[in-house]
Amino acid sequence: MSSSISTLRTLLPADSVSTSPLGCLCPYWTIQDGHLYVADTAPDILSCVSITSRIIDPVAVLELLHFNYVLGDRTLIQGIYRMPWHSTLYGDGRLERRPPIPHGTKHVKPALAARVLRALLEEELGQVVENRKRVFLLLTGGLDSRVTAGVLKALEPTTTARFVAVTWGHPQSRDVAYGKRIASWFDWEWIHLPYDVALTRQNIARGAVWGGAEVAGFHLHAMEWFHQANSTDLVIAASFGDSIGRGEYSSVHVSHLSHKAIHNPWSLIHPRLQDESISRALLDRATAWESEPSSEDWIRCELDGQENYMRRMIGHAMDYIRQYCSLHQAFTSETVVRFMWSLSPELRRDHIYHCLLEDLDARLFSLPWARTGVAPNGNIERDHGLRKEYHELTRWLYSDLREFLDELISCPELATLGVFLRPSLRRLRTNWVGLNEGPLGLAEHVVKVASVELLRREYSIMPCREATPLRDIIFDRYTRLRRQLWLLKTRLRGT
Questions:
Q1: pLDDT at 495
Q2: Does any domain span residue 371?
């Protein structure tokens, strides 16, 4: 069993730290008293920052509320940063960003693209499993992890590694059922990890304390199980398969992505901070493509999706595993990304995966997709008792965890950070508490605000400005009255 140790280190003037183009850990860094410190986790980097210097960053809080993750290199603490991908941090404080992997518009037949992708994935995964004794694969009912499973099965005769499949979620979910089925076909050990309300509560705290409240903690799923792993073990995830393999980000294809306006959700950020925070958030988002020569919107959107959404949300949550053992994100080798990004975005769709799955193993091709219940070959799931969702997160956040979260977002000290408008905090709470079950988005906002409070408590975070409770109440009532008068005026004009 492994235990986490401090990763804090000092970067001397002659030293440097570099990150790979995609998928790797992006270390924290800060300059304190003339020394440059680097660490892998928020607790480690915060250990070298005095309490009086641990000041909340309102820009990062706004980004977290709007996007569900923090943009660019910012963290929730001023003066603490995350390294971007494809960059080098030097001991003198210089950060050099290398140009991103280029995009192209090459057209090839899906079957040919699938053959090339298979060869490149075999090369990538063959290198990372070499000399490993035990390799865990995070296996779901999705297409990406079954592609990864098929490639690993093809490599099995050439390696001494023992493959173990791990699936978390509700026992009656498609993810669990299909993960178990694939492991059985391949004669692999299969481990099922429950994902329940008690674990979700623990993860919310972990997300704030370990993860610096940079994402809602429930995204840690059942990763804590890997504290049982040995430091020599390797975990392989397929989190990047959707984006690299199929050009899909949160179920939206890259050709349909757009950069939407950034706003202040629920007017939670104090009005004195709002405009400047939005302006800085726009600049943070743009760092994703600042070295990209192309002005094509879809390319900039993809770079944004990788550098911000994948790096700061998906990648950050998955990095929880790294404190116990090694982690590799499949589909992230430079050769794989260069090939897939050289193709026309219209080609990067399901049909390449379908050709690849059929080539790897016909059983993978005929197994339904957890998202739809329909297999690539058209087979439809006949067991109607299997659930699409592998969790009951919405119910947990509105019922089982209500008291836990309510105490956090109602804490008077939360408003003393100077970031939030107190009346807006109360309205958020009132809307959430008033529902027995509602939209996940509303509950997620509650979790993010609660996480900021957990962060404040754990690390004694200091305010960014002096709180003005009476002024805030007066301002809020004045603003709401003006809004009501404007609406009344608009209605009267309409009649």
A1: 62
A2: no
Q: ∠ at Cα 244 (237, 444), nearest 5°?
A: 65
- The CA-CA-CA angle for residues 322, 371, 367, to 5°, reads 95
3-class DSSP assignment, residue 99: coil
Long-range contacts of 475-484 (CB under 8 A, 24+ apart): 475/271, 476/421, 476/422, 476/423, 476/424, 477/423, 479/271
Residues 234, 86 share a domain: no
For 290-312, the pLDDT digits (tens) are 999 999 999 999 999 999 999 99
Quote the number of domains for the chain. Answer: 3
- Any idea what the Cα angle at residue 72 is, between residues 69 and 73, rounded to 5°? 105
Alpha-helical segments (H) within 253-374:
271-286, 297-304, 316-318, 334-342, 350-360, 362-366
375 within some domain? no
Whether the CB-CB separation of 106 and 342 falls below 8 Å is answered with yes
Helix (H, G, I), strand (E, B) or coil at 81: strand
- 150-205 pLDDT, tens digit each: 999 999 999 999 999 999 999 999 999 999 999 999 999 999 999 999 999 999 99
- 313 vs 64: CA distance, rounded Å: 10
Nearest to 256 by CA among 301, 289, 295: 301
**Is the residue at 175 inside a domain?**
yes
Judge whether 103 lies within some domain: no
Domain boundary among 324, 351, 366: 366
Return averaged pLDDT per consecutive 10 residues of the chain, 495 residues in all. Answer: 73 96 97 97 98 98 98 98 97 96 96 98 98 97 97 97 97 97 98 96 98 98 97 98 96 95 97 96 97 94 98 98 97 98 95 96 97 95 94 96 98 96 96 94 97 98 88 73 70 73
pTM of the predicted model as reported, rounded to 2 decimal places: 0.93
Question: Which tokens in the block code for residue 102?
Answer: 């280029």
134 and 243 share one domain: yes
Closest by CA to 143, choosing from 359, 350, 380, 343, is 350
On whether both 352 and 462 belong to a single domain, the answer is no
SS3 content of the chain, % helix, strand, coil (to 5): 50, 15, 35
Residue 260, domain extent: 110-366
The string of DSSP codes covering 25-77 is: ---EEEEETTEEEEESSHHHHHTTS-GGG-BB-HHHHHHHHHHSS--TTB-SB
